[in-house]
């Protein structure tokens, strides 16, 4: 990685991305090439709504190179889409865990949380994410079963 990409900025491209000053990130994007961008891309894939991703969004709002803007927007959109998919999978996994822990059938569990079996199915598959209130209800059903 080129160490001269940070121009007139304290810091180095060898430093962790989250410590790069904003101007350093901009300099890497504007003067670097794909190998120089890799640490930035890797960081954003891990933290698609983090501080660095938000700084990148701000930069893309005024950046002049249309190709760079298109590339980084696509990368950011894909990172967020991937994260959302993983989060949906995690929520579905937790719901399956609640269902199993309750010892109830799907129909009984759905009734206990105030929804239909078909809607519960969409939650279990990850197609639909339930509200936070419904997740709390699920936890309460499990707790009630565990107490009895």
Keywords, separated by commas or semicolons:
mainly alpha, 148 residues
What is the topology?
Blueprint: H1 22-31, H2 34-46, H3 51-60, H4 66-102, H5 106-113, H6 117-125, H7 132-147
- N-to-C span: 61 Å
Q: If you average the pLDDT, what whole number results?
A: 93
Shape: elongated
Q: Structural class, please?
A: mainly alpha
Got a strand count?
Answer: 0
Order of helices and strands: HHHHHHH
Rg (C-alpha, Å):
22 Å
Classify the beta-strand content into a percent band: under 5%
Poorly predicted regions? none
Number of helices: 7
Helical percent range? 55-70%
Largest sheet: none
Task: Report on this structure.
- By secondary structure, the protein is mainly alpha-helical.
- Helices cover 70% and strands 0% of the residues.
- The protein has seven helices and no strands.
- The protein has helices at residues 22-31, 34-46, 51-60, 66-102, 106-113, 117-125, 132-147.
- Helix 3 (51-60) runs antiparallel to helix 4 (66-102) and helix 5 packs across helix 6 (117-125).
- It is elongated and about 65 Å long.
- The mean pLDDT is 93.
């Amino acid at each position: 990685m080129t160490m001269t990409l940070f121009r007139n900025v304290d810091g180095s491209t060898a430093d962790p991305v989250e410590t790069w000053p904003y101007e350093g990130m901009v300099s890497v994007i504007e003067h670097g090439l794909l190998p120089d961008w890799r640490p930035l891309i890797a960081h954003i894939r891990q933290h698609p709504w983090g501080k660095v991703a938000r700084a990148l969004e701000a930069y893309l709002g005024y950046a002049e190179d249309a190709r760079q803007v298109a590339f980084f927007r696509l990368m950011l959109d894909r990172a967020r889409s991937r994260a959302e998919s993983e989060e949906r999978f995690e929520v579905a996994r937790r719901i399956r865990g609640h269902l199993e822990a309750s010892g109830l059938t799907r129909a009984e569990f759905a009734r206990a949380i105030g929804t239909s079996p078909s809607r519960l199915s969409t939650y279990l598959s990850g197609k639909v994410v339930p509200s936070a209130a419904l997740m709390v209800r699920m936890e309460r059903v499990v707790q009630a079963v565990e107490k009895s």
